[in-house]
Design goal:
The protein has about 450 residues and is α/β, with parallel strands linked by helices. The chain has 2 domains: about 5-175, Rossmann fold; about 180-210 and about 260-459, Dehydroquinate synthase-like, alpha domain, CATH 1.20.1090. The chain is built from 23 helices and 8 strands. Strands 1-8-5-4-2-3 form a 6-stranded parallel beta sheet, sandwiched between helices. The protein has a two-stranded antiparallel sheet with strand order 6-7. A hairpin with a 2-residue loop joins strand 6 and strand 7 (about 155-160). The structure holds NADPH dihydro-nicotinamide-adenine-dinucleotide phosphate (NDP) and 1,3-dihydroxyacetonephosphate (13P). 1,3-dihydroxyacetonephosphate (13P) binds near residues 141, 157, 187, 259 and 271. 1,3-dihydroxyacetonephosphate binds near residues 140, 156 and 271.
Length: about 450
């Protein structure tokens, strides 16, 4: 039977999930936490991990439910609620060392994206499973393999198993601050251009699409994104769709053991600003999904411009002659990025840098595949205007100015975003074709998307 609801899709995906055994999504389900814990971790003790915000949102019912199920509990670990917890490796170490001496003790975190990732990596480094009670529809990282954690200033997804179980109480999630719901929409909508980036990598034989994984993330995606007004207004049914869409996206990352299904060039804009520290000292800090939403507009605008190019006319000889050496790439990365980001970014950028025969082959491959790429990517994408309208409708920022990024910095981010990850996206295809700067020029020219939308109030 073909699953019809998000709940059915999650149940089906769990059948093949590598780490996650059970996910409970519903209204008034916090009191199921204890029995779920006892079922998934028989005989284990629990340590509840939360921060003051998330404990206030769901803590006591979770503690009561664990006690009612007869689960022995050690003293909870409650992080301060203010300043907002950051996804830094120091917090992972802090939690890991707190739980290390506690034998047969499993973390039950009560958390949105940040603390879930901290609990995931701290548990993973000790080879222990964990579970999470989700407090907002703010991210797709709940069910994912890997934790996005910053270490020495570089933020990237670090390998560790997904949670063994999740509880997502829709009452708690709907009552979370509206900005957390809006940010979850921003994280989810990037799966649209991220899908286009994956099609590109698939067509070039760089990272083939696994149809099963593709279906997990892309299957429920458009339905989950369908009604930003209702999501923004806090409608429970629409928030359920967003929650389930984000969980499915996490399950796709779990099935792929990679964030490829959920993260493309749009995410790379967000990661660049985050590593530059942009908005981290705001209270509340500028969230992941808010930055990803703007990155999604940027990525869709770039794809739109790319699809209008005459790729067949690209002069491969000229591109080869102008190709940068690895030393030149390193110098560019070091000039663009601060020292602590550049250190790791140089490795990714140099590894992606093609010259000579390898570059000639890549250009030929892009030319050969381009008609199929256009055919497959066109129905996948949304226009940048549509993405911006949807973000506005949900109550999320939709223009870089709104998040304090001026046009000069925004324009420069198009180049930096290509440097910080090994993942092949539209940024890399344009780089290989020697066209990235040309496309950026067109985007910011008077007729280009950003030329026509230089300020939020002119949108
Ligand atoms: N691993 C992965 O695959 C992915 C990871 N991420 C990462 O997730 C992080 C972003 O997570 P996000 O959820 O946006 O932000 P946070 O987890 O930082 O949440 C923002 C703030 O809201 C609090 N909060 C959460 N729920 C409630 C509630 N119900 N009531 C009141 N306050 C609440 C949070 O507490 P608390 O800190 O306890 O959550 C925190 O103080 C980033 O680090 C990002 O990189 C994003 C996508 C995928
Ligand atoms: O944030 C992510 C998915 O939402 C994944 O981030 P990466 O692209 O750094 O793996």
């Amino acid at each position: 039977m073909t699953p019809t609801s998000g709940t059915d899709l999650i149940a089906q995906a769990l059948g093949t999930a590598t780490d996650t055994k059970e996910i409970i999504v519903g209204t008034d389900v916090l009191d199921a936490t204890g029995e779920l814990f006892a079922r998934v971790f028989p005989g284990a003790r629990v340590i509840v991990v939360a921060d003051e915000n998330t404990f206030a949102a769901a803590g006591q019912p979770v503690v009561d439910s664990l006690a009612a199920a007869g689960v022995e509990a050690v003293e909870p670990c409650i992080f301060p609620g203010s300043p907002t917890l950051y996804a830094g490796y120091d917090n992972v170490e802090l939690l890991r060392e707190r739980i290390r001496p506690l034998e047969s003790t499993i973390v039950c975190s009560i958390a949105a994206g940040t603390l879930n990732d901290i609990a995931k990596l701290a548990s993973g480094e000790l080879g222990r499973p964990y579970m999470n009670v989700c407090t907002a529809a703010s991210v797709d990282g709940y069910a994912s393999f890997g934790a996005s954690i910053s270490k020495d200033g570089f933020k990237i997804t670090r390998d560790c198993p997904a949670p063994a179980a999740l509880v997502a109480d829709l009452g708690v999630i709907a009552a979370a601050p509206q900005r957390l719901t809006a940010t979850g929409y921003g994280d989810l909508i990037e799966k649209i251009p991220a899908g286009a980036d994956w099609i590109l990598a698939d067509e070039l034989g760089i990272e083939p699409i696994d149809p099963y994984v593709w279906g997990l993330v892309q299957g429920p995606l458009r339905q989950a994104l369908a009604d930003p007004e209702r999501i923004g207004a806090g409608d429970p049914g629409a928030i359920r769709g967003l929650t389930e869409g984000n969980i499915m996206s996490g399950l796709a990352m779990q099935a792929a053991q990679s964030s490829r299904p959920a993260s493309g060039a749009g995410h790379q804009f967000s990661h660049t600003w985050e590593m530059e520290g942009h908005g981290l000292d705001w209270e509340p800090p500028l969230s992941h999904g808010m930055k990803v939403g703007i990155g999604t507009v940027a990525s869709c605008a770039m794809w739109q411009e790319a699809l209008a190019l005459d790729i067949e006319a690209v002069d491969a000889e000229a591109v080869l002659a102008a190709a940068r050496s690895d030393e030149q790439i390193e110098a560019r990365v070091r000039a663009a990025l601060s020292e602590r980001i550049a250190q790791e970014a140089v490795g990714h950028s140099v590894a992606k840098n093609l010259q000579g025969d390898a570059l000639a082959e890549r250009i030929a491959a892009i030319k050969e595949a381009w008609p199929r790429i256009v055919e497959r990517v066109s129905p996948q994408l949304m226009s940048p205007e549509e993405v911006a309208q949807r973000l506005a409708a949900v109550g999320a920022p939709y223009h870089p100015e709104t998040i304090g990024i001026d046009m000069e910095r925004f324009r420069a981010t198009h180049l930096k975003a290509q440097m910080i990850r090994p993942r092949y996206t539209i940024l890399d295809a344009l780089t290989d074709l020697g066209l990235l700067e040309t496309v950026i020029d067109r985007l910011f020219a008077p007729q280009g998307y950003w030329g026509r939308h230089p300020h939020q109030d002119q949108d």
